[in-house]
Amino acid sequence: MRAPVDDTDTSQDDGEEPERVTPAEKRAALAQLAAIRAQTDRKIILVIHIQLGYHILRFFLPEGDAAAAAKVVWVHSFSVGLDAYRLAEIEDRVRDILITNGRHSQSMALAEYVFYSIFYFNRLTWRQQQQQAARAWEPYDIEPLTGKRMVIFGYGDIGRAAAKMAAAFGVTVVGVRRRLPPPEEQQPDVAVVLITDAAAVAAALQSADFVVNTLPHTTDTDGYFHRDRFAQMKRTALYVNVGRGATQVDDDIAAVLQQGVIRGASLDVFGQEPLPTTSALYDVPPERLLMNPHAAARSADQIYALCGRITAIAEAAAAGKDLSSFSVNRVQWY
């Protein structure tokens, strides 16, 4: 049976980038998998992560071996973004396989990071730290959130979580996405702008106090946030990325921050990870830039949320329910 297709728009929940795998690690993992594949005639469910997921998929779905590929009935990715697996290259081999991801499992943690970032700048946390270290007592003004405007690019699950928090602080939210959300995902206080409407997107950027990037990485969003895009924002605007590093141009961010084009930025993801020590971002002062080593959702409880997602899908399948709401977008692969 052909796996159901979900063509709804979703945000990038965890924004994870590929980690480095040594040749020795790859050989050891594939040797273990070879033993597993040789010893079972049962149907196979693959739960993969970015580090070895690309190699695991091609091992269990070898080109020209339909019998081996037929054993795999479900592939689940802990990460939301699937671009590292390059599924489009093996689309004919995954056509009849249910493919799901970790959507919803880390959205709240990432939304928390968005507001942590905003408070870092609006409450001048960097100045607090400097004064404490210097044993100085110099009161200063902070910037309240009430009445501010947040524009969320890739407005989906993370965006909805952030919008709920924003409402509590009196922050107005505009969501930018590929298509209008389905009724069950609409939030009455959130205005939605289509990313294909250049004039509306420009107007949203010009009005934003906080620009939040949760975009998935696709051919359309590659390097989306570049120098010209930042130039459309207020000089007092803050930019926060908890999506994918490849949707921004790191060198442009360093330049616009040093030049004061925008007030500040908080980055959990980068175009290249680990971030090279030669990156110009390291030269930006802390009052302009907050950097996080791709760990905005990382916690001791993270594995429970990820496994909870798998359990929910398995229970729905066992009950014979429609799985289309769990299946990834097979056009954009997220």
TrEMBL record:
Region spans: Disordered: 1-24
Entry GO MF terms: NAD binding; oxidoreductase activity
Coiled coil: none
Pfam families membership: 2-Hacid_dh_C (PF02826)
Alphabetized Gene3D superfamilies for the sequence: NAD(P)-binding Rossmann-like Domain
Keywords of this entry: NAD, Oxidoreductase
Acidic residues compositional bias, start-end: 1-17
Superkingdom of this protein's organism: Eukaryota
Keyword Methyltransferase: no
InterPro entries (UniProt xref): D-isomer_DH_NAD-bd, NAD(P)-bd_dom_sf
D-isomer specific 2-hydroxyacid dehydrogenase NAD-binding domain residues: 120-296
Protein name (database record): D-isomer specific 2-hydroxyacid dehydrogenase-protein
Record lineage: Eukaryota, Discoba, Euglenozoa, Kinetoplastea, Metakinetoplastina
